[in-house]
Amino acid sequence: MAAKSVAAAQAATLRVGGLTSLTSIDFPGRLAAVVYAQGCPWRCGYCHNPGLLDATTPAALDWSQVLAFLDKRRGLLDGVVFSGGEPTLQTALPAAVREVRAMGFQTALHTGGMYPERLSALLPLLDWVGLDIKGPLQRYDAITGAPGSGDKAWASLRRLLASGVAYECRTTWHAGLFSAVELLALADALAALGVAHWALQECRAPGAAAWELSAAQVLALEQRFAVFTLRRG
């Protein structure tokens, strides 16, 4: 096969960096498998899947192997989560989601929201979205290493909220990223936009600053949202 044909074939199928066969926490209320898409355009210092960042890394599994695995799990799993990396980086994602739905599975997406238009096109195919909101707009470039990343993420958030698809917004935080005062302001901004479900996750990356939120501050955050989840440790 010519090099051009090989590249076209690779673009047509999802490049898979890994697979979790069973999870009860990545897709709320469902038993699911997680498909990890290879590649991400951002370079967040606390990334928990750094091996998935390089989009040129060869796939760990062929997409056909993933489909064969899922075929054997019909009736045992409720859904499939597309995570990463950043799944929306790959143009093959919509076709992959459609294939999974055609097999009878519900579908979920974990995303940083860096491609708002692609997210909009995917939303009708999804049952749930976990959207990372990295921080206040003024902190985004420093966190992600990508200029303009905040505008894209917040545009994705607006589209998600308008879609009616079930979701969770989540923010990973330590005081070295931005202050507790800024975190409270971020909560206000999210609530004002209409976010009802926000999860705050303690950053446990090496070198992360100590947790600096008081019980009173946590309570203040909780009162801003219909559903507030605190994940520590």
Summarize the structure in words.
The protein has eight helices and eight strands, in the order αββαβαβαβααβαβαβ. The chain has 233 residues and is α/β, with parallel strands linked by helices. The protein has two domains: 1-111, Aldolase class I (TIM Barrel, Alpha-Beta Barrel); 131-146 and 153-233, no CATH class. The protein has an eight-stranded mixed β-sheet with strand order 1-2-3-4-5-6-7-8. The longest helix has 15 residues, at 149-163. It is globular and about 50 Å long.
What are the salient characteristics of this protein?
8 strands; disordered N terminus; globular; 8 helices; TIM Barrel; eight-stranded mixed sheet; 2 domains; alpha/beta; 233 residues
Please specify the SSE layout and strand pairing:
Blueprint: H1 3-12, E1 16-23, E2 32-37, H2 63-72, E3 79-83, H3 93-102, E4 106-111, H4 116-122, E5 128-132, H5 140-144, H6 149-163, E6 166-173, H7 180-193, E7 197-202, H8 215-222, E8 227-231
Parallel strand pairs: 2-3, 3-4, 4-5, 5-6, 6-7, 7-8
Antiparallel strand pairs: 1-2
Helix pairs in contact: 4-6
